[in-house]
Design brief:
Strand order of the largest sheet: 2-3-1-4-5
Number of strands: 5
Largest sheet: 5 strands, parallel
Oligomer: single chain
Bound molecules: adenosine monophosphate
Distance between the termini: 11 Å
Length: about 190
């Protein structure tokens, strides 16, 4: 089975590209942001905890996030493949994912990184906010999320590079062109 980490800043197109990969390869999709938003909508305890972090553009604590991820994963797999979207976001999460998969006799097959310049991210997210209905797609929270990405998540680029799993792709231009670049990596695994 394939375990694909789709990686990039908020607004880099992870969700859009994940949907295309799911359609093409029949992989399962785990978006931790979607999981948390569903919990908020249902008014669960987890949702209540997650809400204040999300509204402030902050990350949910690693230990909680890792537990959530493991239970969603076990509910979906074994299967053909999984796309991890929005996880890992910190080095401890990446380490936890590595050991979680090792315990299940598998590993991350590839990290696919979508590279998009900062000013484009801001523009995309502000535009998305007009239709997404997401409370965290406003200019102030977006700025915080981009800071969190640069400080806590971007170090994973180096981490996956060292693991020999990093594949960077140009994340702007035509959606189909970006998708083709991602598929080329997956087809080569
Ligand atoms: P996303 O939909 O991936 O942009 O995630 C929206 C928000 O959910 C983030 O800004 C975080 O507050 C929270 N979140 C999603 N995934 C994670 C994660 N792996 N670790 C911590 N917080 C997360």
């Amino acid at each position: 089975m394939k375990n694909i980490v789709i990686f990039g800043a908020p607004g880099s197109g992870k969700g859009t590209q994940s949907a295309l990969l799911v359609e093409k390869y029949g992989f399962k999709h785990i978006s931790t942001g979607d999981v948390l938003r569903a919990e908020i909508k249902q008014g669960t305890e987890l949702g209540k905890t997650a809400q204040s972090y999300i509204d402030n553009g902050k990350l949910i604590p690693d230990a909680l996030m890792v537990d959530i991820l493991a239970s969603v994963y076990d509910g979906m797999c074994p299967c053909e493949g999984v796309i991890f979207d929005g996880f890992p976001r910190t080095v401890p999460q990446a380490e936890a994912l590595k050991s979680m998969l090792a315990q299940r006799g598998t590993e991350v097959s590839a990290m696919l990184e979508l590279d998009v310049p900062d000013e484009m991210l801001m523009e995309r997210l502000v535009n998305r906010g007009k239709t997404s209905g997401r409370a965290d797609d406003n200019a102030e929270t977006i700025r915080k999320r981009l800071d969190v990405y640069n400080n806590q998540t971007a170090p994973l680029i180096e981490w996956y590079e060292k693991e020999g799993k990093r594949n960077a792709v140009k994340g702007y231009g035509e959606i189909e062109e970006i998708n083709a670049a991602l598929c080329a990596v997956i087809d080569n695994l």
